[in-house]
Amino acid sequence: MGFYSDRIVPRLVDISCGMKFTEPTRRRVCAGLHGRVVEIGFGSGLNVPFYPAAVDSVSAVDPADLGWKLARKRLAASTTPVERSGLDGQSLPFPDNSFDTALSTWTMCTIPDADAALREVRRVLKPGGTLHFVEHGLAPDANVQRWQRRLEPIQKAVAGGCHLTRDIPTLVTNAGFDVQDLDRFYETSAPKIVGAYSLGVAASPPVRA
Fold first, then answer.
1. What is the pTM for the complete model shown?
2. Which domains does the chain have, with CATH numbers?
3. What is the pLDDT of residues 83-94, one digit of tens each?
């Protein structure tokens, strides 16, 4: 990682994704997490205050050392055990069927190979386990999509590879998940090009008899 990606982007993400208006959305997406949880794109631990009491432990996956340092105060204030357990969401260092639930918040826009990351999440989830996600991505309106495509190269350059036009529900479905609950909406406190959200719960297929 270069200096900008290593030292600047984690701070920018901590500030921009840590704004007050994101808290109700984080609370929504974390609802229902339980047991052993794997969180990809842990960042600076902005979800830590919203883990439900039913969460036994969290395995945090993120490449940014600075993000982990920025998470210290949030981790110290939490009663949920959190362990930094991996660097790359595209290659998770866990056995199959290891986790009850998984969490991804504003992560799939930046992972270079989101398809691979979602397949890995599905692999490490127990059959019937659920992925809880909120992501920004391709807007439902053509005029917003046009601006997303125009501005995506700039967004990728300044925001650590963040894409504006990934179709999140399609990515989740194509990875073999069953999307059980999905809310697509514009976050009113953000510009539409970055505020087209998909928030949902998707299940890993159960074992067939």
1. 0.94
2. 3-204 (3.40.50.150)
3. 999 999 999 999
